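Reminder to self: keep the SMILES exactly as supplied, no canonicalising. Ligand is pyridoxal-5'-phosphate.
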Amino acid sequence: MINVTKTYLPNFDEYTVTLKRAWDKAWLTNNGELVLELEGKLKEYLGVENFLFTNNGTIVLQMALKVLGITKEVITTPFSYVATTNVIIWEGCKPVFVDIDPNTFCIDASKIEAAITSETEAILATHVFGINCDIETIEAIAKKYNLKVIYDAAHAFGSTYKGKSLLQYGDIITCSFHATKLFHTGEGGCIIANDKELANKLMLYRQFGHVFDDFYSIGINGKNSEFHAAMGLCVLPNVAAIIADRKRISLLYDASLATILQRPKMENTLSYNYAYYPVVFKSEEVLLQVVEKLKEQQISGRRYFYPSLNELPFIEKQPCVVSEDISRRVFCLPFYYGLEDEHIQTIITCILSIIKK
Ligand SMILES: *Cc1c(COP(=O)(O)O)cnc(C)c1O
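Structure tokens returned for the bound complex:
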């Protein structure tokens, strides 16, 4: 069985040795030694100052909207994981979908201005598959209309844009360290604020709004544990190797597929993390045939992202033709550290047998 992804696991003994430090202190959560150490290392890796390790990559989006005081309309992308849209609705705000760029699959910045109303307060965009949004245009629009910019950077860990981590751009940046992500802590995530005051508020939000007996604000439980931090400490030193191996697989797929299948495009200002390997088939029909063919070989990819989020059954419908079209035809191929050449060739052969028909 070959799945679309396989969690990278560090050496088990190394994990238990790391975890033993928490064990010896009988301290499993609440800013434990391992959480603090991981935060220090991730700050350095990402080149950011205000970094908070959290329990997932969804609660941080909620915290972001809350800390920025967003209550009305949020301009967002229909091509992302469902969490991006859910959070906007969960926080009582209204998602306003702007269609995507057919090249990068990220929000089409040239269409944002037309969607701004007197109720617009923020832009929440996703760096899809680890490829950057049009950061400069979005920043200029945000300045002009006094909007906040939040990036869901759940795919962007390890990508650098103009020499800096993609997680440095925006007012607030969130990431997921879920087991399926390139860098992971089992479950986990982070939030980065470029403003110190916001960062301090977020730190309180993460721990119920209080420090010992002093109660400052509302809050929620966004903390993560020593178990998860230990995983992160063991995975982080291997991130370069993980990215290098994904590059190997990407080049193998490229050699057979890149000229015959549509792929998202990126500029050379991006140093890519190889977070996913999406391909876009000619039609949904072809996609479904490929899915069947792979299934015969016990191989599964993932229709990611599908459906286009503007088509979710619980929201007011707003058309986004590019996103709807790509969502129906996009497919992420198996892509993970250690995926063997032989299996890559089997996947390629399956795909070619369908599309060359
Ligand atoms: C994975 C993911 C999330 C959610 O992260 P969790 O850690 O699973 O809560 C949010 N947005 C995007 C784009 C994701 O890929």
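Points to follow up:
Residues 239-355 form a domain with the Aspartate Aminotransferase, domain 1 fold (CATH 3.90.1150.10).
The mean pLDDT is 97.
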